[in-house]
Design goal:
Elements lengths: L1 H10 E4 L4 E4 L3 E8 L5 E6 L7 E10 L3 E7 L8 E6 L9 E3 L4 E7 L8 E10 L10
Parallel strand pairs: 1-3, 2-4
Antiparallel strand pairs: 3-10, 4-9, 5-8, 5-10, 6-7, 6-9
């Protein structure tokens, strides 16, 4: 039972706002509130086990004055843009899937006449083309 609990801790990540963060768990959530102009956050989701895909699902979004970008990460550290949202309100995008096995999530406050905070909660799940392969390691 102790081994199962330790394994579960490695596979699930729950993180908040930090300047830059590397997430290596197979599944997890990112929750962040952008409170002041100049706030800049970046999360890299690169699971410690080999995966082909990462599904991103927004569970909440309140984007009044922020820019959110999600990139498929390639080996050259530049990747294709999967989603971009600048002050786009609270309409949740449909879930989408990365095909590189690594994703960059970027959040930045944008200024205006008077600043309004923004926040989001996303859930991610990494998987291979073979069901449950990531969990068998």
């Amino acid at each position: 039972m102790i081994i199962s609990s330790v394994l579960l801790l490695v596979l699930i990540a729950r993180v908040g706002c930090q300047t830059t963060q590397l997430l290596t768990a197979v599944t997890g959530t990112i929750s962040c509130s952008i409170l002041t102009v100049g706030d800049l956050f970046q999360w890299e989701i690169t699971p410690a086990v080999a995966t082909n895909n990462i599904q991103i699902t927004f569970e909440s979004l309140s984007n009044l004055q922020a820019e959110f970008r999600i990139f498929d990460k390639s080996s050259s550290r530049s990747g294709s843009l999967l989603w971009n949202c600048v002050s786009c309100g609270s309409l949740l995008p449909p879930p989408f899937t990365s095909s590189t096995g690594s994703v960059i999530v970027f959040a930045k406050a944008v200024s205006g006449v008077s600043f309004s905070p923004s926040s989001f909660l996303i859930r991610y799940v990494a998987f291979t083309s073979t069901p449950n392969a990531a969990y068998n390691n």
